[in-house]
Amino acid sequence: MKLLNLFRRRKSVDRDYATAIQELDREFPGTQIDLGRASLRRLFRHSAIAMSSWTGQSGLTSTFSGGKYPGALGYPSGWNLDHEKLRRRSRIAYWESVHGRALIGRLVDNTVNTGLKLESAPIWEICWLKASEEEKRVWIRNTESRYHLWANSKEPSASGRMTLYQLETFEFLNRLRDGETFLRLHYSSDNSRMNPLYVQFFQPDQIYTPGSSEMLKAAKLRGNKIVDGIEISKTGEEIAYYVHDEETGKPTRVIRKGPKSGKLFMIHSPLIDSVGQVRGIPILANMIHELQKLTDADVAEIESMIINACIAAYIEPSEGKASSRPFDGIRLRNTGAELFESTQINPPTTGVIHKPGLIIQNLGPGEKISEIDTKRPSANRDTFVKSIKSGLSASIGIPDECVEMSFNQNYSASRATLILFWNDIAIYRVNIGADILNPLLEAWMGGEIESNRIKALGWKTAVTRRAWLNCSWTGISKPSIDPLKEVKAVQLRTGLGHTTGEREARIYNGSEFSENIERLKVENPELTEAKKSLAPAILPSGENGDGDKEEAKEEVAEMVIEELR
Q: Please, which residues bridge with residue 370 across strands?
């Protein structure tokens, strides 16, 4: 480190040889230094390169790969991102750090959960102006039903192992952990399939710039350039991807979209946060260092606890006398037979310790047994670690309570925490829809239209196609702390026209409002008939009479006040 600090002050790696030797000798007195001029230059240069990975000095480009320099403000002011190291270390953090796994797990579980469901909402004024309400309802129902049947099967997976809903979870987890995902879209000619579309995943490690000079020249002739395995145009549009086969190591150029058919062949969904960034960055990238140290600290604390439990006591010798060998005379508890007699001429140096207990019986004069008190774990450890973890959680928009799944605050505080968290969940869902699900829906619907299973007039016109594809993606609803208050709030909102029964049914459990109504038409008469046989005493409140209207008014008033808060 002293050598690095010395080189850090140098403005040039080719400074005067004699002066450099003098400074090295002054910094490291007593050390024989015998370096040639070329060797010294190499030493300066290598040290400068190592140091510039954090300082950006000597005109070299610095590189950030997840680690953080331990000294003061020695962070780089600008860097290139080492995507390979970040991905590898992020994967390690995901597997080794329970907190890193919890951060990604909470986002995946709440954002995708069992899958995001299609809620089709075509803009009829553009795509089908003369459609009646019945025709609209039938089209939406037919489209959503066909999409669900396909998505809930294992046809969408190239390996045949996952449904599309499972692939949504898999894709989002990999995108957060690796920073990006690559999905290859295939179109089958098998008429027995529900839809020709299926998806294949590529590892981000498979996408890198080919070593073939011919491919590089060909990309340049097309007016493009290859950056980290992705061919991009002058405006930054992704044109093609160079996928390396893991067995042969040979690259294959996969275009993003067909020039004639317009079909999509590759989806790249990176996590980017800067202009000109091509490859994605893992969501754990800025906290890999902290996660590693927290994991090391946890392991050290556990080992300390085990050691403390194993070595419960030690022998404190007397002054001026050598320590005895107290374990030479160990005997089993509740027995009179000694394993080793202390009167033996050549007693063994160690005895055999038999659980579940032992008796130390031959301490020397002045010796005593003292207990080990390591004061570990520290009483302040939980508070300190929690403060670190709270900062890491907040950096990606997750309240610490949601990560730990522990709500110990009052109703208002817990509700505010969930609301803030759910705002971020909504953003993630919009991104998943824009990056993954909307392109997949377009490719899927194209296959349905070609097979005449779905009618969509003007599909080949861009604006009309977008009108047909207009939709939203719904998942599980926000967890309810007080379900009764939530239901009353929905009643007020629907009564005021602020929401609809269809939307609330989707948000609550992903069901169809119209389907619920049809089922209730059958269930309600049956329920009424069943209630006739019930004793009045066990009927729910309000069914035995008019009920307490004043109490109902007070409950509604309390609920409105709580909503206003």
A: 314
Task: Give the residue with greater pLDDT, 457 vs 5.
Answer: 457
CA 444/CA 464 separation, integer angstroms: 17
CB 67 within 8 A of CB 60: no
Helical ranges in 451-512 per DSSP H:
462-469, 483-496, 501-509
Residues 6+ apart with CB under 8 A from 453: 146
Asked whether the predicted pLDDT for residue 462 surpasses 90, the reply is yes
Annotate 136-173 with DSSP letters as a single string.
HHHHHHHHHHHHHHHHTSSTTBTTSS--HHHHHHHHHH
Respond yes or no on whether the N-terminal peptide bond of residue 270 is cis (omega within 30° of 0): no
pLDDT confidence of residue 524: 87
Give the confidence band of 27 by pLDDT, cuts at 50, 70, 90: low
Task: Give the three-state DSSP class for 2.
Answer: helix
Distance (Å, whole) CA 23 – CA 442 = 68
Query: What is the token pair recorded at 556?
Result: 């509604």
Distances (CA, A) of 481 to 92, 344, 561: 35, 73, 17
Degrees, nearest 5: CA angle 461-470-264: 60
